[in-house]
Amino acid sequence: MNTNEIRVFCPATIANISCGFDVLGVALASVGDEMVVRKVTEEGIRITKLEGQDLPMETLENVAGVAGLAFLEKSDYQGGFEIEIYKKIKAGSGIGSSAASSTGAVWGMNELLGKPFSTLQLIKFAMEGERLASGVAHADNVAPALFGGFTLVRSYDPLDVVTIHSPAELYATVIHPQIEIKTSDSRKILKTNITLQDGIKQWGNVGGLVAGLFKEDYDLIGRSLVDHIIEPVRSILIPGFDEVKAAAIEAGALGCGISGSGPSIFAFSKGPEIANKVAAAMKEVYEKIGLDYDIHVSKINIEGVREGR
Ligand code: HSE
C-alpha cells in the first residue's frame, strides 16, 4: 500500500433543503467527485490533473487548492500535496460541486498525515473553498459531505455542526436542467431582510424538518419542506420550476424545492418506487419544454467522504 497517496470519493450534497438556507444539508449516495491526494516533499498545493470540467488548475483559483492551503497554514507538516481531481459533479449545478472538491482535498490530506485535525476543523478549511466559489464561507454543503447524512449548522460563530438522523426509506430525486447558475450570482439577488411573519413560518419548518427526520415521520418531513424566503426569489432563475415542483408532488413526492442555489431541483420521497415515479414526472416537464437535463435518484449517503471511488 502506498501511504503517500489516497484515492478519495466525496459525495454531492443538497444544501438548504427548502427551509434551512445556509444551515441544512444532506449527502447523496449516487454521485460524487473522485480525487487522488498525494504527499510530496515540495511545499504547497498543486493541482496536477483536473478532468471532467473546465475549471482553473491554479492553486489560488481552485477551491481544492484554497482549502488545501488553509489546511497547510494551520499544520506543522513541512511538505506539500499534489491533487488530481476527477469531476463527476458539474460546476454550477447546485449539488455541491465546489464543496465536494474542497472537502475531498482536506479530508485526504488529513488522512495522509494521520488525522491531526478534527472533522469540525476540516469543515473550516473546506469553507475557504466555498468562500472562493461563492464569496461566502457557507458550511451547509461541506458539513454533510464530510459527515454524511443530514447536518445542521446550528451556529457559524463559533462553528457548531449537528448531525441528524437519516430515515432509512428516504430517497432524493434531483434533476439538473442544463443551465449554469453561479452561487455568487444567485446570492446577490436575495433580500437581506425578512419579515417577522416569514421568520416564524421558516423556523417552524426548520424545527419540523429536523423533528421529522429524527422521528422518521415522513408526513412531517413533507409538511416542513417549504421555503417562504429564498425559493420565491430564486425560482425565477430556473426554467419550469413551478411545473417541475407541481409534477413531483403530483407523482407522490413528500416535498420539492431548489437544491442549494440551483438550478437543480430536488424532491424527497418515501421509497425508491415513488422516487422513480417522481423522476419520470420531472423529466416529462423538461422534455415538453425541450430543455436537456441530468437526473439522479439517490439514497441518502450516510457515510460522507471516504477512501475509494
Ligand atoms: N446555502 C448556499 C446558498 C448553498 O444557497 O447560496 C449553495 O450551494
Mean pLDDT: 97
Distinct ligands, ions and cofactors found in the model:
L-homoserine
Residues in β-strands, percent: 25-35%
Domain module count: 2
Order of helices and strands: EEEHEHHHEEEHHHHHEEHEE
**CATH class descriptor of the largest domain:** Alpha Beta
* Helix share, percent: 25-40%
Question: Judging by the overall fold, what is the CATH architecture of the largest domain?
Answer: 2-Layer Sandwich
Q: Which regions contain 5 or more consecutive residues with pLDDT less than 50?
A: none
Q: How far do the termini sit from each other?
A: 16 Å
Structural class: alpha+beta
Strand count, sense and closure of the main sheet? 7 strands, mixed
**C-alpha geometry:** globular
Number of strands: 11
What does this protein structure show overall?
With 309 residues, the protein is α+β, with helices and mostly antiparallel strands. It folds into two domains: 5-164, Ribosomal Protein S5, domain 2 (2-Layer Sandwich), CATH 3.30.230; 170-299, Alpha-Beta Plaits, CATH 3.30.70.890. It is built from ten helices and eleven strands. Helix 1 (63-73) links the parallel strand 3 (44-51) and strand 4 (80-86). The longest helix has 20 residues, at 196-215. The chain is globular and about 55 Å long. The relative contact order is 0.18. The mean pLDDT is 97. Bound molecules: L-homoserine. Residues 15-16, 21-22, 96, 138, 140-141, 183, 187, 260-261 line the site of L-homoserine. L-homoserine binds next to helix 5.
